[in-house]
Design a protein that fits this description.
heterodimer, A: 113 residues, mainly beta, seven-stranded mixed sheet, 11 strands, globular, B: 125 residues, four-stranded antiparallel sheet
Chain lengths: 113, 125
Amino acid sequence: DVVMTQSPLSLPVTLGQPASISCRSSQSLVYSDGNTYLTWFQQRPGQSPRRLIHKVSNRDSGVPDRFSGSGSGTDFTLKISRVEAEDVGLYYCMQGTHWPMYTFGQGTKLEIK
Amino acid sequence: QVQLVQSGAEVKKPGASVKVSCKASGYTLTGYYMHWVRQVPGQGLEWMGWTNPNSGDTNNAQKFQGRVTMTRDTSINTAYMELSRLRSDDTAVYYCARGGDLYCSGGSCYSIDYWGQGTLVTVSS
């Protein structure tokens, strides 16, 4: 099975400062069609998850442009250019490349210092 | 707009079964995969499996093999997830979540886009 490993697990950030979350997979996430099916979700306290980014770097509609995704192969990163109070919550990566099985990372908790 | 509305909270005894419903609106259930994901209190997201609501095909994580059944009623645009032989460590919030379209033509291919509000299932004697 593909294992997704996020770091750090806890991320205290000062308002207005950047933040970065790493997600590493135990196997390459490049699919046979050449695409890489790596998704990022945000889960605010008490809410359902919300998708931020799919296929590594494609931001969903309504997601602020301070969120960006990058990476390739087995190493991926979610970056927030300037953290705002509403960004507090949990962040998860998920792979879909190794369909029919999907896997989430263990989550990263972002909090304000 | 796409919405997934789940059934209400449940309390079950160990050994019992629970069936959670997920009513889809704003799109046709049979056009997209439906995933089920759970979250034990204070822990992360755990992928349970998916169903193809058009064919009825399903695929589950090994951990839930033999205990989870995913079905659908296309006449009412509703998907269901039933978990049997419940244990206390099955206490969790269970989410339905829409996957990609069946022909992988949209932006959600091999991904998940919309989520239900979650259903808390408590297993306690």
